[in-house]
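Postdoc handover notes: sequence design on the structure in folder B. Input tokens:
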């Protein structure tokens, strides 16, 4: 990434602009008609009595109480981009023998490391609708991270949730349905943390597109904007959609949360006091720490009091050598701008998260280096200093390849089947498409997977890992064909029309056409797609390829590898297209998993975790591709509210091609006997009362000399971020920026420093409750059951789904509120049983700032997809 030098200056002078408290020189933000974020101060401090966090906080207290101010600041501030081995590392505490904490991408494996697995994407595993499988994926990823010495795994993702189908990073997350994403967040967090690694739920919040997420990146592409995109989200939509899955992550005990590049209501995600202090730390009672996305921090003191706990990667912009925190945070405490309790709170939250996952002071060494595969090299890569062994090439894969194959197969959605599948020793297979074969550059040929060659098994960007191997579809198909004595020929060039025609029109051909659509993170642009997809059609003329093949071959089976829905209207209903499969982004076992499904070794059951609409416009919400606010922050108004994906089409009564939750099996199921039972739960009581006074842990020296860089102990590493000052003449001199010759002046209004006990939120947890919200929101109010009979000839999994109609005029026709994946033998009947919590049947009430069960009549529905709901019953 390259940034013009003046971008750094912008970051310094504009830090105040987005903070409503600081007098702003940015006329754009002051314009009355722009969305505005209300202040929420002071920043809620940790609550050591929160259920599930007691032991972690007892250990954190013991540790943090011993620390000096500089040591605490070290815990909060990254040492700078490429300063150490991991994508992010904070300072260390040598006096106590505590090495620096290691944060590492990505949500589907370990980025920048060797001998690690490349897992199925989040969006793909969401299609399994299988809690246990999602948990096992998280656990396996956690195990690999632990072996490599990673402390914080930067995932899972609920932002983007997938507001716009073209959103570049939707595949890193799970589904545009908040209930499904919430379940997947919780299971993944539990899996990762049960393996002893801190999970990081990201990106908080409203981070729904790549365009304009960063100023430098946008300017590099010719968009002359001075502030990043603002996601303008109303309070009800925030609670019922975007915040929902983060609630599940917090309730599952997630140790960290990453704030986003995007602004929310024109206040930067990492200094938005309403979202961080208000929603996350007070209303949800989140007890872990908030870290910034890389370069998403835009202020020092303002972000500290708004609830940020860790600055990543520590420098203002990559390799500037300066930091909003580090020295600045030390000085901000010394000069009284940031209260001591806030820095103590940051340190406590960080250490509590660390202890919560079972870590001890006996740390696991970091045994890999993100920046080179060389065994020996500079441990401080940016500075090219500290030559030593930096890579131990530890194999962390264990037996995860088998698990990945299972996940990918169980997540493959059968969208159409006219009897063509499963394949049974076919006589002649014609395999067509670049997407079935290898890339000539190898599976890791493009940095961060930033190209589209060969079969697609991962999107691009920081949410990737290096493939240890990639079994392509053609390899696995060929192996199967050899066993079956099937004639098999492949054409791996989408443009080789005449060759393809000659092959597929031959008598008896079963054509398997592999196609794809890719996307990724905004720092890489592939074929004009600046992270977000520029269209929803297939890449590499995929749609033409399918049309050509199916015009000549009456048994054309299509396999789509994609990052979300594509427009299939042109060909999906051709009688010659006899089957369609969505295999998502399967990861390293792509070929073997698709063969498992095609040949019926795994009976498909997965369900599409998003809607396949006939037209792009049907989705109602889209990416903003052109700035719409002059040079100011592009404004993305979420005017569709909670009506994204199936809720949008259902409300507008538009028929999708394949609806949310849809997927076929090689057997058939029937639904019967819905029963609703009311459970007696206590009446809902808003949380009342106050928290505690802000605690502090240990004293700090007010002598500037005690913060002087200890030149005699160790050398200054170039561009490295420290907590120290260079001069003892005055606080003002110490905070003089040698680059710009001025101090980083930040003045905060009174009140943000308040340390008295604060009111608890009515919708939030009490002092001894589990984080996530008022505990009564999770009371079970109903048990709903139904019978499911396998009416076909083969064993299979069925995914019964429960939807609720909340009944109000502003409510979607139905919302998902329960599901299970159940194995049923042919001829047998199984019982699907699920419960509905108070939260499941409530709406967010803006007035009372709480959840309420409205008086509108409510109905539950059960069926195999969002549009096929044969059973229904009123909710008493
Ligand atoms: C954004 O503005 C809307 C409309 O005023 C408001 O409902 C919502 O709470 C605001 N959100 C934040 C995070 O400030
Ligand atoms: C802060 O971290 C740096 C980098 O790990 C280390 O060199 C320094 O000694 C630490 N300072 C303190 C006060 O622990
Ligand atoms: C970008 O916009 C600013 C005004 O905010 C203007 O001063 C500058 O010249 C513009 N730069 C380019 C390259 O158009
Ligand atoms: C302190 O922060 C300002 C931006 O607010 C930055 O310009 C300056 O370089 C920082 N100082 C240090 C020592 O990193
Ligand atoms: C693919 O086929 C087209 C048409 O025959 C040809 O022009 C092109 O060179 C081929 N590409 C490769 C990589 O062989
Ligand atoms: C859509 O984008 C892909 C990838 O950039 C490209 O291959 C394809 O030609 C585009 N489709 C249309 C219809 O423009
Ligand atoms: C289906 O395939 C046959 C060849 O098997 C072809 O003659 C026919 O035109 C195709 N039909 C369509 C609708 O493409
Ligand atoms: C395709 O056409 C052939 C020859 O006309 C016929 O034997 C076969 O049954 C057809 N297959 C399908 C799947 O319709
Ligand atoms: C402190 O001194 C080091 C080494 O000379 C220099 O690189 C750094 O920029 C200085 N920091 C400040 C805040 O002046
Ligand atoms: C205190 O120091 C911080 C960090 O350098 C700076 O942003 C702030 O303006 C200073 N405040 C005062 C009152 O000097």
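Designed sequence:
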């Amino acid at each position: 990434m390259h940034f013009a030098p003046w971008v750094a200056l912008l970051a310094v002078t504009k830090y105040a602009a987005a903070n409503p408290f600081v007098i702003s020189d940015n006329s754009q933000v002051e314009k009355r008609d722009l969305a505005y974020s209300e202040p929420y101060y002071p920043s809620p401090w940790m609550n050591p009595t929160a259920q599930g966090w007691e032991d972690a906080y007892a250990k954190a207290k013991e540790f943090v109480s011993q620390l000096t101010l500089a040591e605490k600041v070290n815990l909060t501030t990254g040492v700078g981009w490429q300063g150490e081995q991991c994508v992010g590392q904070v300072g260390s505490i040598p006096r106590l023998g505590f090495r620096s904490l290691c944060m590492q991408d990505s949500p589907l494996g370990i980025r920048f490391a060797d001998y690690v697995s490349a897992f199925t994407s989040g969006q793909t595993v969401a299609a399994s609708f299988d809690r246990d499988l999602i948990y096992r994926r998280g656990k396996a990823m956690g195990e690999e991270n632990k072996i490599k010495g990673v402390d914080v795994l930067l995932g899972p993702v609920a932002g983007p949730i997938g507001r716009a189908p073209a959103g570049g990073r939707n595949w890193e997350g799970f589904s545009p349905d908040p209930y499904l994403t919430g379940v997947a967040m919780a299971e993944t967090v539990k899996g990762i943390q049960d393996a002893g690694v801190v999970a990081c739920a990201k990106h908080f919040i409203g981070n729904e597109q790549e365009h304009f997420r960063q100023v430098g990146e946008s300017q590099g592409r010719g968009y002359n904007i001075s502030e990043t995109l603002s996601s303008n989200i109303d309070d009800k939509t925030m609670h019922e959609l975007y915040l929902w899955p983060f609630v599940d992550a917090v309730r599952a005990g997630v140790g960290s949360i990453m704030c986003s590049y995007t602004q929310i209501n024109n206040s930067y995600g990492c200094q938005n006091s309403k979202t961080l202090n208000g929603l996350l730390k007070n209303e949800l009672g989140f007890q872990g720490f908030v870290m910034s996305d890389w370069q998403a921090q835009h202020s020092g003191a303002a972000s500290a009091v708004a609830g940020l706990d860790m600055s990543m990667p520590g420098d203002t912009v990559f390799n500037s050598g300066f930091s909003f925190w580090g020295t600045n945070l030390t000085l901000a405490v010394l000069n009284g701008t940031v209260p001591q309790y806030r820095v103590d709170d940051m340190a406590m939250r960080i250490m509590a998260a660390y202890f919560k996952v079972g870590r001890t002071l006996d740390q696991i060494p970091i045994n890999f280096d993100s920046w080179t595969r060389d065994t020996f090299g500079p441990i401080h890569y940016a500075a090219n200093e500290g030559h030593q062994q930096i890579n131990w090439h530890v194999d962390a894969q264990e037996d995860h390849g088998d698990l990945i194959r299972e996940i990918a197969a169980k997540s493959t959605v059968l969208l159409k089947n006219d009897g063509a599948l499963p394949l049974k020793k076919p006589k002649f297979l014609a395999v067509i498409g670049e997407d079935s074969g290898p890339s000539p550059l190898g599976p890791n040929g493009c940095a961060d997977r930033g190209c589209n060659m060969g079969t697609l098994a991962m999107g691009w960007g920081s949410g990737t890992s290096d493939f240890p191997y990639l079994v392509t579809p053609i390899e696995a198909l060929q192996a199967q064909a050899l066993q079956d004595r099937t004639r098999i020929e492949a054409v791996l060039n989408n443009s080789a029309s005449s060759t393809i025609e000659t092959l597929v029109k031959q008598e008896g051909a079963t054509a398997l056409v592999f196609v794809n659509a890719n996307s990724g993170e905004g720092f890489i642009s592939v074929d004009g797609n600046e992270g977000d997809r520029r269209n929803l059609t297939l890449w590499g003329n995929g749609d033409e390829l399918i049309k050509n093949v199916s015009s000549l071959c009456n048994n054309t089976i299509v396999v789509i590898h994609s990052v979300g829905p594509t427009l299939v209207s042109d060909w999906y209903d051709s009688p010659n297209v006899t089957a369609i499969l969505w295999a998502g982004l399967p990861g390293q076992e792509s070929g073997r998993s698709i063969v498992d499904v095609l040949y019926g070794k795994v009976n498909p059951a997965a369900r599409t975790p998003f809607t396949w609409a006939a037209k792009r416009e049907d989705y109602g919400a889209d990416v903003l591709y052109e700035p719409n606010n002059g040079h100011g922050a592009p404004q993305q108004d979420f005017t569709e509210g909670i009506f994204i994906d199936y809720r949008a089409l259902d409300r507008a009564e538009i028929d999708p091609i394949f609806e949310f939750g849809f997927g076929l099996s090689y057997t058939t199921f029937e639904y019967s006997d819905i029963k609703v039972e009311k459970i007696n739960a206590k009446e809902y009581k808003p949380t009342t009362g106050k928290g505690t006074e802000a605690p502090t842990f240990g004293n700090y020296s007010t002598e500037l000399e005690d913060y002087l860089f200890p030149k005699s102990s160790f050398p200054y590493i170039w561009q490295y971020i420290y907590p120290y000052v260079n001069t003892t003449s005055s606080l003002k001199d110490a905070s003089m920026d040698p680059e710009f010759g001025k101090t980083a002046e930040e003045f905060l209004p009174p009140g943000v420093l308040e340390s008295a006990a604060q009111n608890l939120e009515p919708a939030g947890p009490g002092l001894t409750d589990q984080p996530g919200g008022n505990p009564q929101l999770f009371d079970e109010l109903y048990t709903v059951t139904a019978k499911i009979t396998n009416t076909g000839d083969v064993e299979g999994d069925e995914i019964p789904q429960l939807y609720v109609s909340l009944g109000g005029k502003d409510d979607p026709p139905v919302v998902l509120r329960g599901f299970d994946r159940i194995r049923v033998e042919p001829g047998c009947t199984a019982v699907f049983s699920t419960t509905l919590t108070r939260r499941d049947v409530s709406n967010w009430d803006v007035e009372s700032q709480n959840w309420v069960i409205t008086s509108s009549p409510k109905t539950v529905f059960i069926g195999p997809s969002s549009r096929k709901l044969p059973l229904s019953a009123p909710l008493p």
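Context for whoever picks this up: The chain is about 25% helix and 15% strand. Don't rerun without checking with the PI first.
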